[in-house]
Amino acid sequence: MSEPLRCRIPAVATQMQDDATVRVTRWDFQPGAETGWHRHGLGYVVVPITDGTLMLELPGGGTAEAKLTAGVSYNRGPGVEHNVVNGGTAPLSFVEVELKSQPG
């Protein structure tokens, strides 16, 4: 999939660990920042560092909203495709742990 022209600032990804079992990335978003379109090739767990609201752009043009609560994790399986945008008015951060034992 080719990524559309960006009109938003990019979120900042900081790789914290990458070994045989996991890849751990911290994501920091200014208000309105985005990851860019991507497909998750691995199952993953997200651990929010801050409270916030994500706006998820989905294939086919739809959107969804996800409320983040600091310290309350969630997981998704491989194959998820989306663009993640900080839909709130404050910076937000989360840690993403990709599970290399769950390829998709």
Structure description:
The chain is mainly β and 104 residues long. It has one domain: Jelly Rolls (Sandwich), CATH 2.60.120.10. The chain has strands spanning 12-18, 22-29, 38-39, 42-48, 52-57, 63-68, 74-76, 81-86, 92-103. A five-stranded antiparallel sheet has the order 1-2-9-4-7, with no helix packed on it. A four-stranded antiparallel sheet has the order 3-8-5-6, with no helix packed on it. Helix content is 0%, strand content 55%. The protein contains no helices and nine strands. Pfam families: Cupin_2 (PF07883). Residues 26-97 form the Cupin type-2 domain. InterPro entries: Cupin_2, RmlC-like_jellyroll, RmlC_Cupin_sf. This is Cupin domain-containing protein. It comes from Humitalea rosea.
Mean pLDDT comes to 94
* SSE run: EEEEEEEEE
Q: Give the number of helices.
A: 0
**What is the name of the CATH topology?**
Jelly Rolls
Strand and helix layout:
Blueprint: E1 12-18, E2 22-29, E3 38-39, E4 42-48, E5 52-57, E6 63-68, E7 74-76, E8 81-86, E9 92-103
Antiparallel strand pairs: 1-2, 2-9, 3-8, 4-7, 4-9, 5-6, 5-8
Protein name: Cupin domain-containing protein
InterPro entries: Cupin_2 (IPR013096), RmlC-like_jellyroll (IPR014710), RmlC_Cupin_sf (IPR011051)
Domain Cupin type-2: 26-97
Offer a concise description of the structure.
This protein is mainly β and 104 residues long.
